[in-house]
Amino acid sequence: MTTATINGVDRYIAEARETMARRAELRARVRRLRFDTIAVHGMYGLEEAFSGGQGGIVEPIFPSTSQAYRDSDEMEAALSYRIPTWCYSRIHNPTVFYLEETLALLESYGCSCDATGLATSSGMAAIKQAVEPLLANPQGAPLNFVSTAQVYGGTFQLFNLRMAERGARVRWVTEPWRIETWEPLIDEHTRFLYAEMPSNPQQACTDLEAAAELAHRHGIPLIVDATVATPALMRPLAHGADIVVHSLSKTAGTGGNAIAGGIVARHGIVSRHLDDEQRGDYALWLKLWPFRDSGPCMTATTAHYLLSEMRTLRLKMAQMSRNTLEVARYLAGHPRVERVDYLGLESHPLHRLASRYLKVVDDDTPAYGHLMSFTIRGSAADARTFFDGLGRIFRATDLGRIKSVATIPAISTHQQQGEEGRKLAGIPPTMVRLCVGAEHPQDTIDDLDQALARI
Ligand SMILES: *Cc1c(COP(=O)(O)O)cnc(C)c1O
User: Fold this and answer.
1) What's the 93 CA to ligand 1 centre distance in angstroms?
2) Which residue ranges make up each domain of the chain?
3) Which of 42, 87, 168, 281 could form an SS bridge with 102, CB 3.0 to 4.6 Å?
């Protein structure tokens, strides 16, 4: 190496050190702000707007596939990861950076820990990326992991089939709210605990603090899918969880314009199976290595769209939670409805546990989100008559929308897992999953009312 090369590379490293220090200082300042302020601005404040954004008040979209370098020294420093770089949009992208920062800041809000975010092409990609390295198995040992049985249909398939193909067995916890039922499933080959909370569609809950304590006692991490709650209602890292995964296609991306996912991991996750670098900043390590090698990246346009959606996340979650409670109370009083499962109803067996964890951030009023389910009193055919009679509520295998959406899980989201799997997860063919949007709740009730009258 010539002296000139060393000097050139070093110059870029010194410059990068300054950029990193400025960014760390900005992040520390942003962390002191309230939730709504972080959601609205994230890391894109006046400073960023006037340095890279030409004064634009919204984060710029960078559709470019790759980054050009000023000279060979900068290229060398960048590609050996000695300076921050985005390099190639499969690995990173400046617009995606703003989303990852916002996501990590919101998810670690009120938590003493630091966290890093990683944006992915879908929620399933986030889950797969988050769990796969924990199941590394060069010796072909009999691995397992423990998960709540009440998980999203895609997660059920991923855990039950895809992971089994790799020699990792899932052990389902059927009553996750009974924390004493978790421990007998854990042994020396267990790599992590996984909980979806509240689960889609049953709204199963787990005592996250107790589950985190249990996981850590066994030297393994707790991973939580908090898609349905969003950080506006629940932040698992503050309760001891190590990694949070999201389908940003759902509630966080309320408008319904993009498929997307995200991982947020605290710095210093607990795992006796990973090395120091992996544990230190798991999400960053994922991004730099396994994620780069498998390619489930988010586009700049999707990141831009999600940033716009998330600015009003708390307001939307508070309003839609209120609407859902009103709709649930109406359904609970209807003679054609056998039961209503909504965590916000005092009659729900998990209401008290849910109330410990689900609250509107910064004002602490309990709010239970906008996912609920109910079963029709009658046959599977009656459920379909009702469902086909809906006139404004969309029939779609979707949730988390600003528009009310309903589905019959047994013929849609949970069809693949078969009758046995549905029984395990508690999903009868008369169950309707309803996600209440931001329409006036009386209009939603009127639609349900006329559809129920058709049975
Ligand atoms: C939809 C969903 C997923 C999967 O997310 P995609 O973005 O559709 O891949 C994971 N978890 C939960 C709770 C979901 O509702």
Assistant:
1) 23
2) 85-310, 313-452
3) 42
Query: How confident is residue 403, by pLDDT bands cut at 50, 70 and 90?
Result: very high
260 CA closest ligand 1 atom index: 7
- H or E element: which one contains 225? strand 222-225
Residue nearest to atom 2 of ligand 1 (CA): 247
Domain 85-310 classification at class level:
alpha beta
Give residues (CB < 6 A) around ligand 1.
122-124, 152, 154-155, 196, 200, 225, 227-228, 247, 249-250, 259, 261
Which pLDDT belongs to residue 389?
98
> What is the torsion angle, in degrees rounded to the nearest 10, for the CA atoms of residue 411, residue 417, residue 423 and residue 427?
-40
CATH of the structural domain 313-452, one choice from 2.60.200.20, 3.40.50.300, 3.40.50.2300, 3.90.1150.10: 3.90.1150.10
Q: Give 1's DSSP letter.
A: -
Could you tell me if 231 and 306 are in contact, meaning their C-beta atoms sit under 8 angstroms apart? no
Please give the number of the atom of ligand 1 that sits closest to the Cα of 196.
13
- The 3-state DSSP class for residue 397 equals coil
| Separation CA 335–CA 340 (nearest Å) | 12
CA-to-CA separations, 204 to 175, 207, 208, 348, 426, in angstroms, rounded: 8, 10, 12, 11, 10
pTM strictly above 0.85:
yes
* 51 pLDDT above the threshold of 70: yes
| pLDDT the model gives residue 5 | 52
Q: How far is the CA of 172 from the centre of ligand 1 (A)?
A: 19
State the average pLDDT for the chain. Answer: 94
Q: How far is the CA of 350 from the centre of ligand 1 (A)?
A: 22
Distance 258 CA to ligand 1 centre (A): 12
